[in-house]
Amino acid sequence: MNTVFFDIDTQIDFLYPAGALYVPGAERLLPALARLNRYAAAHAISVISTTDAHTEDDPEFRGWPPHCVAGTHGQQKPAQTSLDKRVVIPAAPGEYDIAGAQQIILEKQHFDLFTNPNLHRLLERFNADRYVVYGVVTEYCVRCAALGLLPLAKPVELVTDAIQSLNPADARHTLNEFTSRGGRLTTVAEVCSG
Fold first, then answer.
1. With contact defined as beta carbons under 8 Å apart, do 108 and 51 qualify?
2. CB of 133 within 8 A of CB of 142?
3. Beta partners for residue 3, in sequence order
4. Do residues 129 and 45 make contact, with C-beta atoms less than 8 angstroms apart?
5. CB burial readout 21-47, b (16+ within 10 A) else e
6. What is the DSSP-derived secondary structure letter of residue 191?
7. Cβ neighbourhood burial of 66 (10 Å; 0-12, 13-18, 19+)
8. Which partner for 186 in 1, 111, 157, 162 could form a disulfide, CB atoms 3.0-4.6 Å apart?
């Protein structure tokens, strides 16, 4: 089965208490995130890792504190979630060589990863039979990924012990919506047991 993992916004500004837009409790996800990404590398599963890559005056900062400004320490992924062979694909349309990459860093300036115009071409190229989604934040960017992949009519799984929310009620609503539309909930142990 051709699987693609979606590692959503696991960036320093979100995962650590000193981060500019810290998600409380997210640092506890690091072992799970690392295990998923390392499992993918060991089993030749491609990982698409989304990252916010904002400008200093990004319009998103009208509603959220400045975070993940491109080129800053907070915009980076922690070493535990980074694989050795990676390629960065910016939000600008173009042709990008992903040959040999274990991890594709897909930059975005909005919640929705589908706003990166290169994602559709990546999905066509991988032609996956299954998608596995994890990261932060459940009710925002993870939601966009999980629900956005469902229309591709392939199994989409959301790893419940590798996601973190800001609002538990909104997260429950997201999980209910996801499963009611055909998505499946799973765990790190289940994903990494194969």
1. yes
2. yes
3. 130
4. no
5. bbbeebbebbebbbbbbebbbeeebbb
6. H
7. middle
8. 157
Give CA 154 to chain center in angstroms: 18
**Token digits for 104?**
């594709």
> Tokens standing for 118?
């290169």
Q: Token digits for 129?
A: 């039979």
Amino acid identity, position 116:
N
| Mean pLDDT in residue range 74-78 | 97
The CATH number of 3-191 is: 3.40.50.850
Judge contact between 144 and 154, C-beta under 8 A. no
What would the two tokens of residue 73 be? 């320490």
Question: For 104-142, what is each residue's pLDDT tens digit?
Answer: 999 999 999 999 999 999 999 999 999 999 999 999 999
pTM score:
0.97
